[in-house]
Structure prediction request, 171 residues.
Amino acid sequence: GLSADHTQQIARKIADKVVCEIHKGDKPKSIGAGRNAGARHATGDVILFNDADTIPQANYYSQIKKAFENPSVVGVGCKIMPKEATRLQRFVFEILNLMVYLSVKAGRPAIAGNSVAYRKGAFFKIKGFDEEMQASEDQDLCVRISKLGKVVYLSHVTAYTDSRRLKKFGL
Prediction:
């Protein structure tokens, strides 16, 4: 079925192409399966994944492009923050972003899939996202692709994600 928030209908009005991977038999397909389907339709050298409820800062695209000028770079992510949050929630997200930064420095990058870009050749060389994983498929891909080149974390660039999950589930 279609999403309750009408994402597909909205996307069809503004996007050049909308790719839907919804069900595998009776079960909904994984996030990884949906992302891989979109990647198979990508035509550029860099594949950018950005969740529908996530809005990057204005400098996001130019900074991603600049990072990929280095041919050894295979992945680029940025800081993720909730759009509307309490002081405590913002503090927790700052800690989570620090952990992502440290994971990249330690050589085991764990960049979130909310807003991330990968070099297309490297993405397909590692066979994209693991479609069997129901969670953490983004961190898994990031670790696997880092074996092919450099993963960059742009700590000075932020993508703001909707706070609805925080409101529904809490921290």
Remarks:
- The beta strands are 23-24, 27-28, 46-50, 54-56, 73-82, 115-119, 150-161.
- The longest strand covers residues 150-161.
- The CA atoms of residues 8 and 15 lie 10 Å apart.
